[in-house]
Amino acid sequence: MPTSVIDSYFPLFIQVNLAIVVAAALVALGVLLGKRLKNKVKDLPYECGITPVGTARERFSVKFYLVAMLFILFDIEAIFLYPWAVVFRELKMFAFVEMTIFVALVMCGLFFVWKKGVLDWNVEREHREEGAGRIKDAA
Question: How far apart are CA 75 and CA 69, in angstroms?
């Protein structure tokens, strides 16, 4: 049984130092033994197996950010559901009614953005609607 603070943290100290030594050794071996071939293909950025097209300065659609915000919203909803599930039996019917209202409000928000077309990424539909709008304006 450890008798002092130093004795109790000694195994942790050994493990951290061992991890640092192993990491440094692997990096050093990679630098010393690795091949250094430079070519045009190796210098290209690689993302998901797709060859990049265009520049890195292209603008993203606003829909990308809206979907990202919706993802965060529903993650937060899931986080609120966990503690509710833990204390559900203690709070009885009150907790059920409160969480039902919460989920209904979030689902109303989901239905709203769905009807607004935020989740529709079909480009052809957008072009048809723009063309229909131009026809109405011309008439």
Answer: 10
